[in-house]
Design brief:
- By secondary structure, this protein is of the alpha/beta class.
- It is built from eight helices and seven strands; from the N terminus they run βαβαβαβαβαβαααβ.
- A seven-stranded parallel sheet has the order 3-2-1-4-5-6-7, sandwiched between helices.
- The longest helix is centred in the middle third of the chain and has 29 residues.
- The protein is globular.
- Bound molecules: nicotinamide-adenine-dinucleotide.
- Pfam families: adh_short_C2 (PF13561).
Length: 265
């Protein structure tokens, strides 16, 4: 058995940039057709579709705001219509709107929770409904697979980012509850918790002096790249991980190992 996904269809949210693009590429390389969701990045989404098609794969770009229930329903309907089915959902979209707790506006609290937590719930719900509706396609041991994009900040508190940390902490128990609820239907739901990955969401943190300070938090000594996350996503989507249910795979170069205790315990 290997990490192949031939014949399966994956929907990846926020796939016009960063981790989402990397995951979409990885799933396509493993043989999946890809529904490339984008919010505002139409051009990069269409370029990604052309790239996948140029390598002999199948892909389609579909715009949607994942925090809008009607838009999510339309995304899944259009995606399933274009590709014939949906077998894998990667709920990846996420944003940061950082501020000290005393300054944070309720609008920025809500925006982050709406996108990161409610948006990921709506995509999981739509995916589960789709898997149950289309029944067993006999392409995988599971009826369907959902992968939530969490963060090391589902466990590491993060001063100045209370909305983001709350959204990711919420994803952890949402994912485990959905996994418990759906496992009996052979729907596998898991999460990936990336550490510091070089994308635009943290462009200011990975370069220069800030980048040097960041490396002190990463025992493995390098910032991650999107392929590190894509590899975990392909494995979680494949039958290689068929007995993995309700687990968060941490992909962080050891960031969650409390490196501050190495010389100070
Ligand atoms: P990114 O900013 O490149 O990607 C976020 C994507 O989400 C973008 O494509 C954006 O258009 C999309 N998006 C934003 N609002 C949306 C909405 N309402 N509807 C649909 N899509 C929307 O950053 P990234 O680093 O690739 O982040 C991807 C995910 O990984 C996020 O959930 C983020 O929290 C998580 N993550 C990233 C890191 C990191 O170090 N880069 C670490 C931990 C977790």
């Amino acid at each position: 058995m290997d990490c192949r996904l031939d014949g399966q269809v994956a929907l990846v949210t926020g796939a016009s940039s960063g981790i989402g693009t990397g995951v979409a590429r990885g799933l396509a390389a493993a043989g999946a057709a890809v529904i490339v969701n984008y919010h505002s990045g139409r051009e990069p989404a269409e370029a990604l579709v052309a790239e996948i098609e140029g390598q002999g794969g199948r892909a389609v770009a579909v715009q949607a705001d994942v925090s809008d229930p009607d838009a999510v329903a339309a995304l899944f309907a259009r995606g399933a219509e274009a590709m014939g089915a949906i077998d894998i959902v990667v709920a990846n979209s996420g944003i940061q709107k950082d501020a000290p707790a005393t300054e944070l506006t309720v609008e920025d609290w809500r925006k982050v929770i709406d996108t990161n937590l409610t948006g990921q719930f709506l995509c999981a719900q739509a995916g589960i409904r789709q898997f149950l509706k289309q029944r067993d396609r006999k392409l995988s041991r599971a009826l369907g697979k959902i992968i939530h994009m969490s963060s090391v900040h589902e466990v590491i508190p993060w001063a100045g980012h209370v909305n983001y940390a709350a959204s990711k902490g919420g994803i952890a128990l949402m994912m485990r509850t959905l996994a418990q609820e759906m496992a009996g239907q052979r729907i596998r739901i898991n999460a990936i918790a990336p550490g510091a990955i070089a994308t635009r969401i943290n462009a200011e943190n990975v370069a220069g002096e800030a980048g040097k300070r960041l490396l002190e938090l990463i025992p493995y000594g390098r910032v991650g790249d999107v392929e590190d996350i894509a590899n975990a996503a392909v494995w979680l989507a494949s039958d290689m991980s068929d007995y993995v249910v309700g687990t968060t795979i941490t992909v962080d170069g050891g960031m969650c190992l409390y490196p501050g205790f190495r010389d100070n315990g």
